[in-house]
Amino acid sequence: MLKKQMDNPVLKASFEKILAGNQAWVKQVEEDTSGKFKQLAKGQHPEILWIGCADSRVPANQITNTLPGEVFVHRNIANMCVHSDMNMLSVLDYAVNVLKVKHVIVAGHYGCGGVAASLSRKQFGIIDNWLCHIKDVYRFHSEEIDAIENEEEKVNRLVELNVAEQVSNLCSTSIIQNAWKERDDLAVHGMVIDIATGKLIDLDITVTDSEGLGKVFAYH
Ligand code: CO
Predict the structure, then answer these.
(1) Which domains does the chain carry?
(2) Active-site residue numbers?
(3) Quick check: 172 and 217 in contact, CB under 8 A?
């Protein structure tokens, strides 16, 4: 089955490009004399958990100019932190309680296709049910969003508001709150990437304790 598919020369060429790219990377690893890759093979000690969009234009390592081993990553469409998403919660729990990361970064990006789609009334398939979580964020801020005339600006503002909402969702988890009871070196940040400039913009909504959480959200 696979062989038959790979008889397609275009498919074969694009797959070989991936392998050739890896060969170039292997060469870089071989040429490295610092010993860091041998060390990395034994384990990881990243200080950052990055929760970003699945979009191909926002790779965590390139954006932060970091190397393998420095950033623990979870990505999904529109960098959502959905309360009952076991995938996200498992990554968060492992990052916070085992790896003991110091920074959890929710990284949105301007021009996010997921956010743009959530502002439309079009159906895109099963993803519509995921995008409903963003529509919920819109609902909290519909007056502000509706007042913006330019479509691009509308999307970009919702990108920012969505990041803030996901930061809030993370802080509502028992995982983050229990970690804050144990240690004071854990910060949750909200940031947005401007793809055109590569800039990672701090939205200045960093949370380092549960003090600001609303009554029902802060656990005793
Ligand atoms: Co996106």
Answers:
(1) 44-207 (3.40.1050.10)
(2) 53, 55, 57, 109, 112
(3) yes
Q: What type of residue sits at position 205?
A: I
CA of 93 relative to ligand 1 center, distance in Å: 24
Q: In sequence order, what are the residues at sequence separation of 6 or more whose Cβ sits closer than 8 angstroms to the Cβ of residue 5?
A: 11
Q: Are strands 71-76 and 48-53 parallel, antiparallel or unpaired?
A: parallel
Our separate counts of H helices and E strands in the chain read 10, 5
Q: What is the pLDDT along the chain (220 residues), one digit of tens a residue?
A: 666 678 889 999 999 999 999 999 999 999 999 999 999 999 999 999 999 999 999 999 999 999 999 999 999 999 999 999 999 999 999 999 999 999 999 999 999 999 999 999 999 999 999 999 999 999 999 999 999 999 999 999 999 999 999 999 999 999 999 999 999 999 999 999 999 999 999 999 999 999 989 889 999 8
Give the pair of three-digit tokens for residue 17.
């490009």
The alpha carbon of 85 and the centre of ligand 1 are apart by a number of angstroms equal to 18
Give φ, ψ of 215 to 5 degrees. -45, -55
Q: Nearest 5°: CA angle at 213, between 207 and 219?
A: 110
Q: Cβ contacts of residue 29 below 8 Å, gap of 6+?
A: 37
CA–centroid distance, residue 174 to ligand 1 (Å): 27
Q: State the distance from the centre of ligand 1 to the C-alpha of 115, rounded, in angstroms.
A: 7
Q: Cβ of 166: how many Cβ atoms within 10 Å? A: 25
